[in-house]
Amino acid sequence: MKSKTLLIALSLTAFAFMSKSCMNEEKKSEKTEKQTTAVEEGKQEKAAKEIEMTPLEKGKSIAQATQAALGKNLVQAISERGTAGAIEFCNIEAIPITDSLAKIHRARVKRVSDKNRNPDNAANEAELAYIENAKNQLAADQNIKPQLKEEDGKWVAYYPILTNAMCLQCHGNADQVNKEALAKIQAHYPKDKALGYSENEVRGIWVIEMAN
Ligand code: HEC
Predict the structure, then answer these.
(1) Contacts of 31 (CB under 8 A, 6+ apart)
(2) How many domains does the chain divide into?
């Protein structure tokens, strides 16, 4: 119950931050209407229950909450320890942060890539197909659509992860990454494939598994 309320609070926050919404407009207005009626009745609790998020919306709010937590911690780690110092942070903390948010939402959360740094984050065949598609949509200047499917009685949703300028400190061309940071990356991830990116590229995807 508590986690559901939290999830809804997070998702409402997430709406405010969404620049390019890929949500179904119809569903969105439906939800706003339901919410308003319930709040008018003064039943906050009921309002929370009545907001029926679609699995795509729910997955998106989980992905965004996780991304926000990771991003905040990463920025803090860089400012406190520098880029090279922050590599350790990503190495040690990224998966636990992802896992703890997954627990709160009773979902499974993965961050995978076609050019993964951590061998545990390699995309599987279906994920690779989505990434390929996402790259094509981006190249065609389209909004990248999330994808939802049902698998073994669960919902599985994919959302793109794009690069910005900040990411290039650790994912840019080898000559853009400072020497100390590069050495740390190579030491921790001898099979690293995650260099050579520029801004606004598909760096990977969120894979969110939710109970059906
Ligand atoms: C301080 C260095 C650093 C910065 C800055 C950074 N990353 Fe990473 N990134 C890493 C490290 C190290 C890993 C491996 C984490 C692990 O072991 O799970 C990683 C892993 C990832 C992964 C998981 C897939 C994989 O390759 O293992 C994604 C996706 C990712 N980063 C995206 C981004 C994006 C997007 C940005 C910018 C918003 C960014 N990173 C900024 C260091 C960084």
Answers:
(1) 51, 52, 53
(2) 2
Q: Give the global pTM.
A: 0.78
Rg, C-alpha atoms of the chain: 18
Whether residues 39 and 59 fall in one domain: no
Residues 6+ apart with CB under 8 A from 62: 7, 101, 102, 105, 107, 109, 208, 210
Q: What is the pLDDT of residues 82-132, one digit of tens each?
A: 999 999 877 777 778 888 878 877 889 999 999 999 999 999 999 999 999
Are 88 and 38 in the same domain?
A: no
Q: Which domain holds residue 75?
A: 55-211
Ligand 1: residue of 203, 205, 208 to mutate (most ligand atoms within 8 A of CB) is: 203
What is the Cα–Cα distance from 202 to 195, expressed in whole angstroms? 13
Q: Which atom of ligand 1 is least distant from the CA of 118?
A: 27
Residues 45 and 131 in one domain: no
